[in-house]
Amino acid sequence: MEPTAPASELETRLGELLEPVVRSEGLILVELSWRRERGGQVLRLCVDRPLGGVTLDECIGLNRQVSDLLDVEEPIGVPYNLEVGSPGLTRRFKDPREFELFAGRPARLVVSTPGEGTQVVQGVLKGTMGQDVLIEVGGKVKAVPLAQVAKAQLAVDF
After folding, report:
1. Strands 140-145 and 132-137, how do they pair?
2. pTM of the predicted model, to two decimals?
């Protein structure tokens, strides 16, 4: 799993400005992106709850708070669209910190081991330790080297 590209200066500043607002609602900022799209500039926040999902009403409320703060602080300076949403049930992890953010939740890892091929490991995330991802499988915690995680995502249990 490759680390994400360095954030632009604006993304970094927006993250520092908006992270406390997101946390004050008991949520975590999973991803922040500033992109040019067909309709113009878009500021997209992806938020979640550490041990559960986020509701549409929570996204709407957070959108209002963020919009009000950005109107006061004016860090952007150009017209833009603001979108606040959840990562979805099966979104792939994009950043190694997500293993910590989603500790306690069911996950599915595709592990690529040199000389052994790929293997799917499904269990409950326990976070990280050093350069390893910790995942509980069958009541035992297994350490998987982060460098060998080809794909990771939350698992959906039905």
Report:
1. antiparallel
2. 0.67
Structure tokens at 17: 């400005």
Q: How many residues does the chain have?
A: 158
- CATH 3.30.300.70 for domain 9-85: yes
Q: Which two tokens stand for residue 27?
A: 């949520």
pLDDT in tens, 97-149: 889 888 888 999 999 988 888 999 999 999 999 999 999 999 999 999 999 99
Using CA atoms, how far residue 75 sits from 10, 23, 36, 39, in Å, is 8, 20, 17, 20
CB atoms near residue 123 (< 10 Å):
19
Query: What's the CATH fold of domain 98-154?
Result: SH3 type barrels. (2.30.30)
Q: Which two tokens stand for residue 119?
A: 């293997």
Whole-angstrom distance, CA of residue 92 vs CA of residue 94:
6
Distance CA 106, CA 123 (A): 5
pLDDT digits (tens, 9 = 90+) for 19-65: 999 999 999 898 899 999 888 899 999 998 877 778 899 999 999 99
Q: Is 5 exposed, middle or buried (0-12, 13-18, 19+ CB in 10 A)?
A: exposed
> Could you give the 3-state DSSP secondary structure of residue 15?
helix
Say how far apart CA 31 and CA 147 lie, in whole Å. 21
